[in-house]
């Protein structure tokens, strides 16, 4: 089993799991001088259960991971990462063929047991059935990865059809809601340590000009806020929650979206100049995600060096708006006039 912060098959040196991926163990600092890693505390939110959570994330044998979107991409990467650690798997995807291949690979990677569940996560009845089947087959679920999603880029706001909008929100937002809603009660009931990972996107935080990804970004923002709010409902139960913000990953999310999208809409043009084959491998992304979850990181970025710059710009705009609003309120300009 890989130690926290190390990546199987990678030449990258080991570093504390709480540090970024540019961490230099010899210099004990990040090679990126602008990085905040040395000054950021990634302590778990509830210290008294920190040991339980750490144990749950380092001892995977005898545990079960439930992963949606497991037929390809990051979902398959997560399945193989859990399999290498000895966890049993319940794999969910809309593609029967993709699930069959993931099952074969996961068993070869070391998973003691794998069940597959063909499911459209945008449909509550199908999600509920898959969760019920998985619980019946495995007894308990300890790790949930609400990862299923479809891409929707290159379609201007005024060109997207209502059917397309319902589709992308159904898969990306409702799919995550339904998945967690169907399994969290049983996780709270058995009371054992576990973790929930919700896959959002860096698009949830960055409105990239010219990409025409507003609806996609909105679906992923919803996933992020759901996960953050979920912590209130979990309380001090030994269940961690992490949101993942992938950057460019080498997946087939674009081609899958083209195949699955509803008829009658505008063909997605994608993002000009964006080549996903040049992105991070799904296996690498999955290892980053598990290392982050193991460290109790609430917000996990596959491309932190890019995300940080954009967030500084975004929050500068927000702070500017707050300052302007304070000035407006102080001047009395908000008074209602007859």
Automatic annotation (TrEMBL):
Q: Which CDD domains match?
A: SDR_c (cd05233)
Q: Which GO terms describe its molecular function?
A: oxidoreductase activity
The lineage is: Bacteria, Pseudomonadati, Pseudomonadota, Gammaproteobacteria, Lysobacterales
Q: What is this protein called?
A: Short-chain dehydrogenase
Q: Which family does it belong to?
A: Belongs to the short-chain dehydrogenases/reductases (SDR) family.
Keywords tagged on the record: Oxidoreductase
Q: Does the keyword Oxidoreductase apply?
A: yes
């Amino acid at each position: 089993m890989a130690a926290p912060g190390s990546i199987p098959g990678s030449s990258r040196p080991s570093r504390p799991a709480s540090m970024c991926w540019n961490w230099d163990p010899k210099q004990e600092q990040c090679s990126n001088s602008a990085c905040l890693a040395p000054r950021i505390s990634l302590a778990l939110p509830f210290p008294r259960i920190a040991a339980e959570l750490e144990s749950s994330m380092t001892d995977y044998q005898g545990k079960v991971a439930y992963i949606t979107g497991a037929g390809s991409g990051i979902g398959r990467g997560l399945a193989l990462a859990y399999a290498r650690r000895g966890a049993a798997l319940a794999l969910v995807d809309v593609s029967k063929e993709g699930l069959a291949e993931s099952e074969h690979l996961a068993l070869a990677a070391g998973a003691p047991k794998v069940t597959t569940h063909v499911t459209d996560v945008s449909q509550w009845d199908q999600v509920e059935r898959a969760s019920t089947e998985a619980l019946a087959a495995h007894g308990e679920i300890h790790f949930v990865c609400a990862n299923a999603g479809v891409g929707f880029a290159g379609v201007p706001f005024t060109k997207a059809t209502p059917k397309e909008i319902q589709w992308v929100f159904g898969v990306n937002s409702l799919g995550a809601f339904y998945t967690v809603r169907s399994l969290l009660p049983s996780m709270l009931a058995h009371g054992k340590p576990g973790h929930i990972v919700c896959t959002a996107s860096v698009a949830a935080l960055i409105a990239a000009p010219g990409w025409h990804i507003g609806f996609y970004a909105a679906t992923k923002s919803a996933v992020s806020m759901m996960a953050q709010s979920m912590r209130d409902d979990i309380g001090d139960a030994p269940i961690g929650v992490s949101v993942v913000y992938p950057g460019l990953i080498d997946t087939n999310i674009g081609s899958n979206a083209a195949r699955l999208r509803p008829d009658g809409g505008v063909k997605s043009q994608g993002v000009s100049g964006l080549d996903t084959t040049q992105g991070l491998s799904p296996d690498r992304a999955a290892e980053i995600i598990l290392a982050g979850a193991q460290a109790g990181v609430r917000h996990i970025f596959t491309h932190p060096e890019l995300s940080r710059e954009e967030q500084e710009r975004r929050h500068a705009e927000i702070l500017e708006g707050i300052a302007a609003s304070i000035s407006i309120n102080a001047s009395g300009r908000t008074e209602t006039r007859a």
